[in-house]
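If you are new to this repository, start here. Below is one unmodified record pulled from the training split, so you can see the exact layout before writing a loader.
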Amino acid sequence: MEDYLSELLGPPDREKENPAPVAAGNGVEFLASLENCLSQHTTNWDDLLGPSALDMPFDLSVFPDVHAKSVSVERLSIRQLAGKIRARQADAKSSLPLLKLGTFGASRTERGSLRHDGNLESVSGIEGDYDAGEVSPQEAAERLRRANIAALVYTTPSHAPDAPRWRVLCPLSKEISPGEREALCERVNGALGGILASESFTRSQTYYFGGVAGLAAPSVHLI
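And here is the target side for that same chain:
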């Protein structure tokens, strides 16, 4: 155990030169031995393990409406995005903004929209839509947890306990090109049991977020 921890943690702090006792007998003695062994090292566990994937910032594009004639880019973490989803509210779904985990360029369609596949420049995460009404957001969160995928699952305004409707957002550790998105979307879909709607694979697909006045607030699950 000591040899393994020494290799993992590096050399001990020589100011704490007391040797660790040999772990033997009952569990109390073993824990005391392990604690003493760890106390001889000055490793910062946050540096060793790294930050949570939920707190790593990424670029998020927000469109004010479906016409997508303007876009703003925000840099935030998936945990911060969860707060925005909970706080946002409008009188109707059509008045809610739409999000995309990625960035767009300045190329427009004939109608002036910035939201199209050819204008997507980078991808910072994978989004997916579920509207089949059978798998609950709680079950979706558990499937992602078992697959060790960091994600956010939030319900849509049309969600009901007996007819689940939700979306999943999975941040990436680094930005990728639009051409790489489909393979990762397939991975998320596989972890969920192959239940995502086909539009989840559309590169430039965007999604409403927030709640509608008079309806239940969105339920948000962080994995």
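Two things worth knowing about this chain: The two ends are 32 Å apart (CA to CA). Residues 27-39 form the longest helix (13 residues).
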